Structure formats: structure tokens, C-alpha cells
Amino acid sequence: MEKNLPQIVQFGYADIKAFVAAGKTIIDLRDAPSFGAAHIPGSINIGLSPQSVNWLRIAVKPEQEIALLANSKQDIDQAVAQFIGAGYTRIAGYSIGIMEWVFQGEETGFLPQLSIHGLKRVLEKYSDHRVLDVRTDDEWRQGHIAGAVHIPLSLMIKQGLEMARETHISVVCAAGYRANIAGSHLKSLGFTHVYSVIGGMNAWKMKYATER
User: Bridge-partner residues for 132, per DSSP?
Assistant: First the structure.
């Protein structure tokens, strides 16, 4: 870790449980498929990358207390350097993986990763399934899935989503990264049937038509 950065304490199971019970936010830094398969309920997925802090700014306010979860201490150190450098100083602790949570018998969340082909079949079969496109306005104008609802990620997080919590929603972005942020945010709000489209519109455009 860089010099002059504080040492962040490692959370055990009891610490994580108390943190979650207090309604505080866990930032899960793992990749989309790992998060999708199993995560601590209420966590927000911001996969670790050089741009992670830019997405953190959209999802979480600097004054909020957060905890970090990743697959390695190296990933934690990288994120801490990024986040504190951007003004996120209220990092209460970190956890390596979720297996201790699992072995304690706690419930895990699930954010299914849906392929473009799976999405195509779902849309053909279920007329009430909604596609939520969280790309920018410029990306939307370059082509989108017919019938999709367009709300840029930052606006969706700020204003929420005016749909019933039971609505079946597939979230799509350019490649899948923002879709997982949006999907994890919706899950944290109580939406029960949320899917994240892997490959996003980049993959969709390779195989299927779009509207403009």
C-alpha cells in the first residue's frame, strides 16, 4: 500500500454481520460472474479496475461509511489507495472473499448473468420482461434493444426506478460492467428478479438488430 495511507482492519464474520445489520454498504470488488454467483445481500458490485473510483463516485457518497470485499489483500490495497485518494476516507474494514459468511450459514444474494441469447429467448417468451439500458444518451442513440427502457446509470441511482419490485428486469450496458453495478443497486433496493446481461450491447449488436 502507498505510504501515508491508513491500515484498514480486516473484518471477521461478526464484524461483517454487524456492519450489514446496521444498514451500511459493502463494496464488492470482485468480477461480475463471481459477484453474480454469490454475494453478501445488499452489496454493491464495483469490479476492481483503474476506473473503479469513478463508478464509486456514482454509487456511493464520500461521507458514507463503507467496507470492502475482494478476493485478495492485494486487491484491497489497490482499492484503498484509489478510494482514499479520491476522498473516500470512511473505509471501516475489509473482507477477503465470502466463504466465512457462507460457512456461517448466512444467506447469499444472486445476480444471474444472462447471455444475449438467453435475453433474446426471454424477450420472445415473456412480454412483460423489461430491459433496462443504463448507458449514456450518446450510446443509446447509436442503437438499442427494441422496447428497452433507457435510464443512464447515474440518473437511475440518483432517482431510483419506478417499477414494481417484482418486475423481471434485465440490465444492459455496453459490456456488462455498469449492468452489474446497476443490478446490484436494484437488488439492494429490494428488486427481486434482476438479471445482468454479460457482453452487453457490444455482444448484442454482433448478433441481433437494434433500434435508433
Answer: 149, 171
